[in-house]
Amino acid sequence: MNKPARTSPQGCLWTLLVMVICGIVFSGLQIATHFPPFLNVIIGLLVGIAVTYSFLGKPKIKRVLQNFLLVFIVFIVLKTLFGMLIDLWGAHREDLTFTSEEKVLQTTIVEGTDTIPVFSSIRRWTDNYGNSFEGDLTVRTNDYYALKDYIANYRSSTRGNFWGNLYDHIERKDRPGLDLVIQNFERIRAERNLNQMEFAEMVVSCIQDIPYAFVFSQECLPADRYESSIKAILEQCPQCCIGNIAYGIQNPVSFIQNLKGDCDTRTVLIYSILKYFQYDVAIANSDFYKHSILAINLPASGLFKVHNGKKYILWETTAPYFQAGYLSPNFDDVTHWNIVLTSK
């Protein structure tokens, strides 16, 4: 009596092994090359098929195609659901950032034998991977008053790249006044033994956690004088606006003094801190989106810009829980982003 034929498991096993190898190759290419994602997927699939063929031989094509189709459908569904959840959570978090004003205290610290007046706030925040941190953001009162108005006198000495030149001027002028902020981050790095990416994540998430505020070159008007998106925010949080600030950007020391910062107010502060710690960091601006974000040359996947032959991962700074390489769908067309300043 003949034994019943058993269904070969190679179709399922083939598909699984190809997808695992493809995922590994894709991740490596995303980090190590400037190839577009679709090309990395194709390369990953070809490598996966070749390696799997060498181990398992020729599969049952019909079963493999069926399994690939199923995996593709599941992937699309999960990706869509995940994107919706991220967008809903991001919108929820952005709403929360406009509900309360942050508190900065006038206090003193001791330096050597001197008692120094300072502005200081205690920060408690969680990074994008659930790690909790605590520290203070502190600037000397004298530094704040010495630096708070100088941007109004800025005049670019070169043509072109106005914003990059302005940001560079602000960073160089303010950096010495950020030494207490830098000491705090340096302490956290030593205590937690953070690696390069973990340290950058800790710094960026700290600034992301500060509620957003508009910084206008004109005075702040009543909420009903603005377009609907700005109006809705200022109706929830009338104090989330600071006006009559030259070029619509606060210098970093002033931002630490009042914790009112928009997009480029934040990117310049983070840029200055990470530049001090020898990161290859950049600022990316978009005239199309009217927005500014951070960009960093570190091994990571996600959205990026290539500048001078280097891959800079794009990083949103205006709301919590944006990981490096992920931008809101409203801002994620990288062709509209341009690198305006780099540290190296």
What are the secondary-structure elements, in order, as H or E? HHHEEEHHHHEHEHHEEEEE
Order of the strands making up the biggest sheet? 8-9-7-6-10
Mean pLDDT across all residues, rounded? 85
Based on CA atoms alone, the radius of gyration comes out at 25 Å
List the defining traits of the structure above.
344 residues, alpha+beta, five-stranded antiparallel β-sheet, elongated, 10 helices, three-stranded antiparallel β-sheet, disordered N terminus
Report what the structure shows.
The longest helix has 36 residues, at 61-96. The radius of gyration is 25 Å and the shape is elongated. Helix 7 runs antiparallel to helix 10. The model is unreliable at 1-9 and 86-100 (pLDDT under 50). The chain is an alpha+beta fold. Helix 8 (228-236) links the parallel strand 4 and strand 5 (241-242). Helix content is 45%, strand content 17%. It contains ten helices and ten strands.
Produce a short descriptive summary:
This protein is an alpha+beta fold. The chain has helices at 10-32, 37-56, 61-96, 141-147, 162-174, 179-192, 196-208, 228-236, 252-258, 263-276, and strands at 105-111, 114-126, 132-140, 214-215, 241-242, 281-286, 291-296, 304-307, 310-315, 338-342.
